[in-house]
Every structure is written in structure tokens, then in C-alpha cells.
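Need a sequence for this fold. Nothing fancy.
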């Protein structure tokens, strides 16, 4: 078979192909996968190699001319010799690469798409949309069995803070020629479903450059740019950056990174609320301390004022008690005085209040003597009859 293949391709030939995979080995050799495709997808692919004796000249020269290193996604023009090994199979041994053919066909189409979107003013339309402070209702455009979608959901729903989100999946093809139209249809369903979403998330895990080329499609990028809801894209690995990412409201490198982004929004809000709670609690405690101090001072003032008032009242009571006691008739009687009470029970203030024969009482400090008036001496002398004479 080796002789047959080498007889069919006896000379080196120029081949136009796209680099779908490339890896330089530590020993200096570079191994590639070259492919060709059309609108329906991949049509041919072959393994290729650049031996170290050639690669150490080809690689730096190519980068110096094009400004870019050899990488996946580039369409290149290579000078190659067909080779076959019973152990490794068919291989294209690359002898040279034309650096003038520096940008792959898809890259040229990508640049044209970017220029068209800029000319139409679509590049920054999404970025003018305001993302809700806490995006909760999320419309997800992805394939249900996609690893990127599963990673995203696991990371989002099992977050350490316990935040919850409402997610609705709108299934779509996430690679291939029909991918752009499928995603556009899913986004139409988001709008026509009657639900209000805070954001639309387009999710896909990593893949080969050719698998992700659909995210440079003009129609898809145009729909994303003009979509009335903020669109987040998380397509491919860290090194991938597509036209859809450029026009989206927010671009995140991977689905799990997007989950982290959403969780971080809630974590920041939670931290801010916790800060507010702490500040309110601190302010409340300070206010309570001030009020308590005021109450303590007021209580002390009230106690002092009450004590002072009570002392004054007690002093007045003592004065009144002294005056009352000093005015008590029993005090006077105890000093040897008597009190005369007429027959009507009224205190007699004059000898003219009675006449001979009237009954009266004489009060001493230790008792009362009931008498009958024998005679009234106008000169101040009284003739009294003791109680035994009453009734004689």
C-alpha cells in the first residue's frame, strides 16, 4: 500500500485545508489534523506532521509574517508529500506553509461578520440593556445532554450559600450547520412563551474549532444583538472568543464560570445586606445605650427630686404635727387648766352663758366632772355643786 500511495502522489503538492487540531511536541515535531468542510459540515480530514528540521523555521517565519502563530481554526496553504506507514497510517508530511495565506477562510468570514455588525450598529446594543439587580428567572438555551449544561446546573444549584434560581431550558442544537437556526428558534420560544425572564443564557462546553464556528454566524449574532432581554454567553473553553460573545450583554468563558458569576451577584448582595444589618444593629445598640443612659439619669433625677420633695413634705408634716399637738386641748388641760361645757354641749367662753340651776360639765385632763350651777359670781367667783348634789 505504501508504494501504491506514493506512486499516486510522487510529488509534493499544495493543499488548502483548515487546521482543526495542532500540537507541538517537546522533541520539536509538530502534529496537525487538517480538514475541509462545506455548509453541510466536515467533508475530509487527514493527519499531518511537520518534522522538527522544518518546523523550527516554518513556525517563527509564519508568525513573523502573519502576526499570529499556527493555531486551530486557520485555513492554511501547505506544501505536503503524501506518506503511508503500516504502523501510523496515512500522513501528510508538510514541507512548507505559505504565510501569505495567513488567515483561514472562516476567519475571513468572521472578520467580515464583525465589520458588518459594526456598520449596522449592532455590536453594543445588548450592552445598553440593564441587568436586573438579582437575576432570578433564567432562560437557558442549550442541549439537555450537553456536559456544559449539566456542569452549569450542578454548579448553580449546589452553591455553598444555598441561593436558589428559577431556570427553564429551551433545547437547541449547539454545534453543526443547523446550530445557528436552532438557537434562534429557541430564543424565539423564550419571547413567545409568555414568561418574563431576567436573562437568557447560551451554554455550551468546549469543543473543536470547527464545532464552535457556528457561533460566528451573522444571523445568530444579529438576533442576539437585538434581543430585548440581556443575553449571557458561555461557549467553549478559555481560549475561545466568538462573534456571539462580542455582541452579547455579558460574555463568560465557560458555563461553570457563568454559574460563579450569577452566584457572586447574590453573594455580593447578601454581603451588602449583612453589612446593612450589622450597621443597623450597631446603630440600634448605640441608640439604646444612649436612651438607657438618659433613662438612668432621669431615674436618678426623679429619685433625687422625689426624695427632696418627700423630705420637704415630711418637714411640713412635722411642723403641722407640732402645731397640732401644741393646739391639742389635752395639752392645755394637762397644765392644770379646765374646760367648761354648757348644757348644750358647747364650750363656755363666758360666765354669762349659764345661770343658776343650769347643768354643765368641767373637763380635766384626767376626766369630766358634771355639775349644776349653784350661783354665778359676776366678779369671777363660781359656786359649783359636785355631781352628787345633782338631782337634790
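Here you go.
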Amino acid at each position: 500500500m505504501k508504494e501504491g500511495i506514493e506512486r499516486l502522489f510522487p510529488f509534493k503538492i499544495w493543499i488548502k485545508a483548515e487546521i482543526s487540531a495542532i500540537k507541538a511536541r517537546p522533541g520539536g515535531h509538530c502534529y496537525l489534523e487538517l480538514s475541509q468542510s462545506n455548509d453541510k459540515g466536515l467533508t475530509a480530514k487527514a493527519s499531518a506532521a511537520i518534522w522538527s528540521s522544518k518546523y523550527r523555521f516554518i513556525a517563527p517565519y509564519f508568525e513573523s509574517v502573519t502576526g499570529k502563530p499556527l493555531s486551530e481554526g486557520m485555513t492554511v496553504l501547505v506544501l505536503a508529500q503524501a506518506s503511508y506507514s503500516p504502523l501510523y497510517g496515512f500522513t501528510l508530511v508538510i514541507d512548507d506553509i505559505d504565510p501569505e495565506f495567513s488567515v483561514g477562510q472562516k476567519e475571513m468570514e468572521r472578520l467580515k461578520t464583525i465589520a458588518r455588525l459594526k456598520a449596522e450598529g449592532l455590536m453594543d446594543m445588548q450592552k445598553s440593556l440593564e441587568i436586573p439587580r438579582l437575576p432570578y428567572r433564567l432562560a437557558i438555551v442549550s442541549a439537555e445532554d450537553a456536559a456544559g449544561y449539566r456542569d452549569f446546573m450542578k454548579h448553580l444549584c449546589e452553591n455553598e450559600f444555598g441561593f436558589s434560581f428559577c431556570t427553564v431550558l429551551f433545547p437547541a442544537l449547539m454545534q453543526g450547520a443547523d446550530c445557528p437556526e436552532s438557537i434562534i428558534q429557541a430564543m424565539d420560544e423564550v419571547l413567545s412563551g409568555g414568561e418574563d425572564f431576567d436573562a437568557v443564557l447560551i451554554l455550551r462546553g468546549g469543543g473543536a474549532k470547527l464545532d464552535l464556528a457556528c457561533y460566528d454566524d451573522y444571523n445568530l449574532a444579529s438576533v442576539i444583538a437585538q434581543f430585548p432581554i440581556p443575553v449571557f454567553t458561555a461557549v467553549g473553553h478559555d481560549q475561545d472568543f466568538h462573534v456571539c460573545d462580542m455582541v452579547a450583554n455579558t460574555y463568560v468563558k465557560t458555563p461553570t464560570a457563568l454559574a460563579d458569576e450569577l452566584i457572586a451577584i447574590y453573594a455580593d448582595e447578601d454581603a451588602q445586606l449583612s453589612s446593612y444589618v450589622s450597621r443597623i444593629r450597631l446603630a440600634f445598640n448605640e441608640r439604646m445605650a444612649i436612651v438607657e443612659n438618659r433613662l438612668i439619669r432621669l431615674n436618678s433625677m426623679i429619685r433625687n427630686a422625689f426624695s427632696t420633695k418627700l423630705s420637704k413634705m415630711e418637714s411640713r408634716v412635722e411642723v403641722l404635727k407640732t402645731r397640732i399637738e401644741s393646739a391639742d386641748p389635752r395639752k392645755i388641760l394637762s397644765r392644770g387648766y379646765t374646760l367648761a361645757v354648757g348644757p348644750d354641749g358647747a364650750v363656755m367662753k363666758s360666765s354669762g352663758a349659764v345661770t343658776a340651776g343650769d347643768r354643765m360639765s368641767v373637763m380635766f385632763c384626767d376626766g369630766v366632772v358634771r355639775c349644776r350651777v349653784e350661783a354665778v359670781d359676776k366678779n369671777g367667783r363660781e359656786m359649783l355643786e359636785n355631781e352628787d348634789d345633782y338631782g337634790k
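For context: The radius of gyration is 57 Å.
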